[in-house]
Amino acid sequence: MLWIQVIICIALVIAVSSKLSQSADMVAEKSGLGRNWVGAILLAGSTSLPELATGVSAVNYLDAPDLAAGGIFGSCLFNLMILAILDIITGGGPLFQQAQVSHGLAAGLGSLMLGVAATGIFLADRGLDPVLGWVGIPSIVLIVVYLVSARLIAKFERRRRSEVLEQESEAYEYEHVKPRKAYLTFALCSLAIIVLGVWLAWLGDEVVKETGLEESFIGSLLLAITTSLPEVAAGIAAVRLDAVDLAISNVFGSNIFNMAILGIYDIVYIKGDFFAKVAQVHIFTAVIAMMMTSLAIVGLIYRATRPSRLYLTYDVLGLIVLYLGGMYIVYLG
C-alpha cells in the first residue's frame, strides 16, 4: 500500500508541476515581471515550501536542527544537479546557450547566501556565533539578503525587458488567457504542489524507515531527492514549454529560498543556538554548492558548445563530477 501511495503521489507531483510551470509562464507574461523573476521568486518559493514545512517539523518536534539543515544543503546541491539533468533532456543545443546571462545575478546572490550560512556554522563551532535574542545574526542576514535579492532581481528584470522592448517587440503566447485566470491557476497549483510535496516527503520518510535506511547516507540522499522532486518536475515541464529561463531561474531561486528557510529554522528553534547544533560537514557541502554555482555562472557567460565526442558540455560535466564527488566525500565522512 505504501508503494502504491508513492507512485500515485509522484504521478500527481509531475502532473501538477507541469501545470504549475505553465501557469508561472502565464503570470510572467501577464504581470510583466518576466520569467527570471517569476521563476526565481514565485515558482521557486512554491516548489520549495514543502521543504520549509518538513524542516520546521524536524526542528520543532524532532529537535533535529542538523537533520533539517542537512536537508537544505543537500537540496541546494541536488538543485544544481538539476541543471545537468535539464541539459541532458534539452534537444536544441546546450542548456546555457539557450538562457539569459542575467541568471548570473540570482546565482551570485545564492552563492553569497551559502557563504553566509557556512560562516554561521564555522563561527558557532568556535563559540563566536553572534545572536540577537535566540536568533543568530547570520540567520537575520540570510533573510534580509533574500528580501533584497527579490527586489534586485525584479528591478534588473524590468530594466532588461525594457531594453529588449526598445529593440524588438515581445511575443505574447497567452493573449487568450485573462490575467485573473492566470493568477488563480498559479495560486491553486502552488497550493496543490505544497500539499503533495509534504505528502511525498512523509512517504519518503516512511520508505526509508521501512527499508531500514534511516541511519544511512542512502536514506538521507533519498529524502533529499524526494523533497526536490517538485523542482525537477517543474524544471522539466518548463523546458518542454520552451521556457528555459523559467527552469533555470527556478533552480537558482530555489537555492536562494532554501537559504532563507535556514534563517526561518533558526527563528522557530527556541531551544538553543541553531547553528551550534549543525554539523561542520555542512560547510563542505556549502563550498561544493558554491563551486557548482560558480561553474554554472561560467557556463552562462562562456556559452560553450558541445565537444564533438561528448554529448555534455564541459561545464555541465563539471557540475555532475562536483555533485557526485561531493556526495561521495560526505558519504565517507
UniProtKB/TrEMBL annotation:
GO cellular component terms, A-Z: plasma membrane
Single GO molecular-function term?
Answer: calcium channel activity
Regions that span the bilayer: 67-89, 101-123, 135-154, 182-204, 216-239, 251-270, 282-302, 311-331
Enumerate the subcellular locations listed in this protein's record, separating them with semicolons.
Answer: Membrane
Listed A to Z, the keywords are: Membrane, Transmembrane, Transmembrane helix
Q: What is this protein called?
A: Putative sodium/calcium exchanger protein
Ranges of residues in domain Sodium/calcium exchanger membrane region: 2-149, 182-331
What PANTHER family does this protein's entry cite?
INNER MEMBRANE PROTEIN YRBG, SODIUM/POTASSIUM/CALCIUM EXCHANGER
The species this protein was found in? Calothrix parasitica NIES-267
Keyword Nucleotidyltransferase among record annotations: no
Q: What is the membrane topology noted in the UniProt record heading this document?
A: Multi-pass membrane protein
**Which GO BP terms sit in this record?**
intracellular calcium ion homeostasis
Q: Which InterPro entries match?
A: K/Na/Ca-exchanger, NaCa_Exmemb, NCX_ion-bd_dom_sf
